[in-house]
């Protein structure tokens, strides 16, 4: 969904098959969602829980942090699609805050 | 929803009265009226896609010179609108649909920021 809505994000995946239904994209998405699951379980200590991922993003991946916001938007759209009216303003605010905190941690070792 | 998810956006609405909680915000008649005004204007954008900068020229000046609104807020609002649409249309809000809307809110935000 992110690759459709924000084509510039594709620049980080020149080595992927980005066609709809790509197994690579599916597997990668699963990896990302699992990491978010880890984050949720350690919500009071994100820095420590995501330390490895922090290093990865700072020293290897070097994804510009603006992209974390783009992915966050896509995540929330999918949540809204699934939850409909249950994606209330309060739930929305909580999720946005959470994803924003995760993004901060991922970018915290950048410089 | 913008005022709840990004509470700092309340800074532009001191005259709106009670914004102290999500319940207060949702029940506030000034908020509702303003939302209607904003969405109506959005409707104008949709009708004038070929000519957005001209359509929003006066609004852009207003937001810059009188209202002093950071254009980043236009992006925040656009994203909020999309999430509300997604919650409303659920599975019909396909990736292609989202991509189109992201593009639309992007050009609207750009047109509103044009006169800054």
TrEMBL record, chain A:
Keyword Nucleotide-binding: no
One cellular component term from this protein's GO annotations in UniProt: haptoglobin-hemoglobin complex
One annotated GO molecular function: peroxidase activity
Pfam short name (any one): Globin
UniProt GO BP: hydrogen peroxide catabolic process
Family to which this protein belongs: Belongs to the globin family.
Listed CDD domains: Hb-alpha-like (cd08927)
UniProt protein name: Hemoglobin subunit alpha-D
Every Globin domain range: 1-111
Transport in keyword set: yes
UniProt organism field: Tinamus guttatus
General function of this protein: Involved in oxygen transport from the lung to the various peripheral tissues.
From TrEMBL, chain B:
SUPFAM superfamilies membership: Globin-like
Listed GO CC annotations: blood microparticle; haptoglobin-hemoglobin complex; hemoglobin complex
Cited InterPro entries: Globin, Globin-like_sf, Globin/Proto, Hemoglobin_b, Hemoglobin_oxygen_transport
Keywords: Heme, Iron, Metal-binding, Oxygen transport, Transport
Domain Globin: 1-116
Iron among keywords: yes
Stored Pfam families: Globin
Biological process, per Gene Ontology: hydrogen peroxide catabolic process
GO molecular function, one term: metal ion binding
Family: Belongs to the globin family.
Name of the molecule in the record: Hemoglobin subunit rho
Source species of the chain: Tinamus guttatus
Taxon lineage: Eukaryota, Metazoa, Chordata, Craniata, Vertebrata
